[in-house]
Specification:
The chain has a 7-stranded mixed β-sheet, with helices on both faces. Strands 8, 9, 10, 11 and 12 form a 5-stranded antiparallel β-sheet that branches. Strands 15-16-17 form a 3-stranded mixed β-sheet, sandwiched between helices. It is an alpha/beta fold. A hairpin with a 5-residue loop joins strand 11 and strand 12. It is globular. The protein contains 9 helices and 17 strands. The chain has 3 domains: about 140 residues, Rossmann fold, CATH 3.40.50.980; about 70 residues, Luciferase, Domain 3 (Luciferase, domain 3), CATH 2.30.38; about 100 residues, ANL, C-terminal domain (GMP Synthetase, Chain A, domain 3), CATH 3.30.300.30.
Length: about 350
């Protein structure tokens, strides 16, 4: 935190709206940063979009931390444009993958705000990588804008006080652009889990914390998440990133939300199943169906990554930080393709 937050300045007055729970590292860091930075802290008992809009306007909030689902719900609220949110200078997001269309929309409707993507976990004492405000400014030559659009799907670059690597199953470095597990070490990392020696040994190896997050790194050191190691789908020897498929599904204009899981298949080991929340079509459009989504994915993904099954649902189960509960989805929708539920 000391590496990213300036100490309190009596000449600066800022108000921070806290929406995430204090028992989560993101909420705790936001609260401590507010205290260290001398900011006024407005704490929500529980997130609710209309209340968030009301508090942001009433208290002339300058900073806010939102998970992607919260940000989307705020912007989708029918009264969103009735509120004066011009005081917002900084919006930090993280804790769950950010769909491209959500962050692009946010950049449009919050023109006076700078955006920061912060990535980390409790074991790393919060943030280890950051996508700074400059990478959210979609200006420049066509090549520069294209590069920034790609970076919007990343979690940024490592902070100066930590070491971050992408490694294979044996702990060795992977080639640039190749998917591996994010490992991190530094002076502020955890020493281990309290009275859980086995879990500590499984997570910490030779001073490195194995985060369980799969990712790849580009030539400029920007890191792109591919999903949790336990959520990866293994189809016929190929590793499929659920997040990659989800991003494609979410880019469809009639998809409001999507999650991808692997289901047992006798031929390939696992197959890709998509759980999709439809968006209401326009009056002159037909409702999107399974065949249309499969064709849409076929045009944008390698054939083996295309969902072989699409299940339409009313909503996706999420925890308080906006992360989809994949285990719940696997329990409910993990039956083999072609079988009955």
């Amino acid at each position: 935190m000391l590496a990213t937050v300036n100490p309190a300045d009596p000449d600066d007055e800022e108000t921070n709206l806290l929406t995430v729970p204090l028992y989560h590292i993101a909420g705790l860091q936001a609260a401590l940063a507010a205290v260290y930075g001398g900011r006024t802290l407005v704490v929500m008992r529980q997130f609710e979009p209309l209340e968030w809009l009301t508090l942001a306007q009433t208290h002339r909030v300058n900073r806010a931390m939102l998970v992607p689902t919260m940000l989307k719900r705020v912007m989708d609220h029918p009264k969103f444009h009735e509120f004066d949110l011009s005081s917002l200078n900084v919006i930090t997001y993280g804790a769950a993958p950010m769909p491209m269309e959500v962050i692009r929309h946010a950049i449009e409707v919050f023109p006076g705000a700078r955006f920061i993507n912060a990535f980390g976990q409790t074991e790393t004492a919060s943030t280890i990588t950051m996508l700074p405000p400059d990478d959210h400014v979609l200006e420049g030559t066509p090549e520069e804008i294209e590069r920034k659009l790609k970076r919007l799907t990343s979690i940024g670059i490592p902070l100066e006080d930590v070491e971050v690597k992408i490694v294979d199953e044996d702990g060795g470095p992977v080639a640039q652009g190749e998917v591996g597990e994010i490992v991190v070490r530094g002076a502020r990392m955890m020493a281990g889990y309290w009275q859980q020696e086995a879990a500590t040994k499984d997570t910490m190896r030779s001073g490195w914390i194995y985060t369980g997050d799969m990712a790849y790194q580009d030539e400029d050191n920007y890191i792109y998440l591919s999903g949790r190691a336990k959520d990866f789908i293994k189809r016929g020897g190929e590793m499929i990133s659920p997040e990659e498929v989800e991003q494609v599904l979410m880019s469809h204009p009639q998809v409001a939300d999507a999650a991808v899981i692997g289901v047992v298949d006798t031929e390939w080991g696992e197959e890709v199943r998509a759980l999709v929340v439809r968006r209401s079509p326009k009056s002159d459009e037909a409702e999107v169906d399974e065949a249309a989504l499969q064709e849409y994915c076929q045009e944008r993904l390698s054939s083996f990554k295309r969902p072989r099954s699409v299940v339409f649902v009313d909503d996706l189960p999420r925890n308080v930080m906006g992360k989809v509960l994949k285990r719940d989805l696997r329990e409910q929708y993990g039956y083999p393709i072609g079988s009955k539920e």
